[in-house]
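If you are new to this repository, start here. Below is one unmodified record pulled from the training split, so you can see the exact layout before writing a loader.
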Amino acid sequence: MSSKSPLELPPVARQLAFNLSTDTLYACIRVSKSWHDLFLPYLWRTILVGIGCADTSLREAWADCRWHGPYPENAHYHRHLVQRFTLIGEPCGVERIQFPILRNMVLQPIFRKSGPRMMVLLDFLTMCPVLRRLEMKDVHMTPQAWRTLSTHPHLKSLALENVQIVAGDAPVFWQICMQLETLEMDNVTFGGGAGSGGSQEGGIVPKDKVFDRIRTFSLRRGYEQFERQPTELIHCLPGVESMTLASDLPTQWMEYPIQNHWPHIKSLVLTGVQEPTLAAILESVGHGLASLTFYHCELATRANSKRALQAHFKTLVELRIHPCTPVSSDTVLDVLCSCPVLEVLHVRYLSAEVITERGPWACQHYLRELTAGIQVGQNEEALQPLVFERLSTLTRLEMLEILTPMPNSRRSMLAFRLECGLGQLAHWQHLSVLQFSMEWYNINTPQVGMYEVAWMAKHWKKLRSVSGHLHHDMEMELQLRIMFESHGIKTFPSSSSLGESSSSSLILFSPPLPMNQYRTGRRRRNDQLGI
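And here is the target side for that same chain:
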């Protein structure tokens, strides 16, 4: 019985290909014919046409005026493999090709007046019969473009940013929304078209429309367009399961009782929502809320918001309270002691004194990710062993991130030292990611030493990466990183470097021609940038 290579198993090959960079995939297809046939579909899965400087600002890259992308003849030959197409700036020829299985399209002009020519856009939309998701930023849509888009029966997801919908196009737009499952609107304005006189009538949700297919809804900015009939928008989304609301909502939302108007919501993201709207939204969500995220919201001093939040403690699985949202340690402790199925918790501040006050945490057997600024006061050094004792109960923890104290704070970070109680965490058998999110000026004492590195490598068998600043002395910092690397644990200078995926496979060069041209010796040099 012959043994098969693991690459012959589709799940293994797919997982491997999704975690390889474009350059690595390009090298793999040159190894052999079998590897060429295996990795070529993943190399052509996503292509990008436009400016290829992804790490620089678009305006700087625009001044360079170099358009990157695959050669048109190569793109035409492999058109049956392309599933995602991204166009940045003006068209340059490749977008005229018909891609039969293209499912995702991204149109992102650099400047509003220099976007894709509308005739090219209309032709491209016509040549994508199975398009399922369309993202547009700064694209000037004409009435003909909206009508063309409405003829796509497979379109299920639409994301718009900085797009104006004139009064005459609003009925077609809402008709398109009837078939969508995902609708994302960022700074989408209505009205202002020819003959409308600047009226906003086109932006009002029609009374006879019910978008019962939409499951994911995102609305950022542009809330003033719904001030005249805000309650109509609530009734139009009876089946929404994931919602993102950014900036404060109009006060008219409070004039109508919205208790349990979103009974199916499982994920909710709120940005810049203030009282009393914040409490009303939390009360309007059903009892199945599993994921909740706050950005710039009032949550620390409002009793109504606290009571509304407590109503979801029994079902919350993920709770993210980002640093710009003020929240007290007591509120965070209420979450830890009252959420029995909580798996992910991100908070900015958690004092050592409050951690050691109450009884056991209800989520100690479920919590997998913890991001918190665990801080110790000037006279609380004796509490550090008790803090580690409480943390030792989190036996399922996979990721821990310790945040730095605020600037000019009199508190310091929890010291990860053996003499402070670190040895009590020896039972963390699942921890794989450890992050120290701190700045140099915040470090008062060494956080990690040589003994701690050896201890972590010995007891945390699954630890694969450590990020952030480990010591205030740069030479010692380097030695600690070398020691981690010697144990097979990767180190990163900051937490932002962790988790950066290289599997996007955006083709900024021209991929190779068919395999038969390798054998005939007519292989072409294709690793340079195409126009």
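Two things worth knowing about this chain: The chain has a mean pLDDT of 76. The CA atoms of residues 83 and 102 lie 4 Å apart.
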